[in-house]
Amino acid sequence: MQYWLFKTEPGCFSLDDLLFSPDHTTSWDGVRNYQARNLMRSMKEGDLGFFYHSGKKPEIVAVVRVVREAYPDHTAQDPKNRHYDEKATPEDPRWYMVDVKLESKFVRPIPLEELRKEPELEGMELLRRGSRLSVQPVEERFFRHIMDMAAKDQGIVFP
Fold it and tell me: Domains, the chain, ranges and CATH?
């Protein structure tokens, strides 16, 4: 089992969007960073990840499960899509996506500033200055600590 963090701008795709997606599942498309793409290609079905709202109010809002391993991101080959990449072809898709399903929602999101105050999270990729990856690995110890914070402080609900 591996653990991840999926960043999204709430104005682009929010937790509410995921809640209203069929079966609370969506493809994590539009990633156009090679390091993030490679991380997604290493994901396995069953891996867990945090659903993180970036932007003006950065916070962890939920947990998702990888339900489909990496496959070509079709948005890269659609000239009408904002994630279009003219170099992507069916023979060489360049970009990949995974499907994630909502596993649980935090009753109270955990803000970034609260995470920064936790000494147990020192070294977590999300908390490093300049960390901009939209998909990033999370060490198991960090994942478990944040889950403990969510369970102790406010609880977790399931869709």
Answer: 3-157 (3.10.590.10)
